[in-house]
Design goal:
The protein is α/β, with parallel strands linked by helices. The chain contains five helices and six strands. Strands 2-1-3-4-5-6 form a six-stranded mixed sheet. β4 and β5 form a beta hairpin.
Length: 202
Amino acid sequence: MTQQIVIASNNPGKLRELQAMLRPLGIDAVPQSHWSVPEAEEPHGTFLENALAKARHAAKATGLPALADDSGLCVAALGGEPGVNSAYYAGRDGDRETRDARNNAKLVEEIKLASDRSAFYYCVLVLVGWEDDPVPIVADARWNGIILDKPHGDNGFGYDPYFLSKEHRKTAAQLDPEEKNRVSHRARALAALAAKLRESQR
């Protein structure tokens, strides 16, 4: 039996990835925009707090179980930035593609003299059964890599063309979507969440 949940995001890249990864689990993941739910405020300093706020916001608005993802890029030479500010690193003006281009330009400029280019993508997923669910299911994961000076690859979104996976020796944008959905920070977090969900249902 298919279970319907609401995805607490309006980010098209995240939605594509999460829907593709949840489908084999028998979960019909519907974006919150289907119910005209606006983006939640993300005022917190940690990925976990922001994800929980987004999940509760979507559950309250729809009356459905809600899954929220908060994720971003953490760069060692920048003290962990852009971190929770990854989506708006270089400002909030413009559409998503414009912001992505500006974010990447700022990132490359900020680390051009850095000897340490190590970074990791981080993702935390929070699933709540209802708005005030006292026991949300939480899972997180990292994906280690380095930041390049120039973009490579046409897939993915955000910082993907500049993020070279140490494990795969390709950028996240050079991986085809199916492969990325098996190995990324989001895929690993979702696998951990699915395992916890199965355990909670025993």
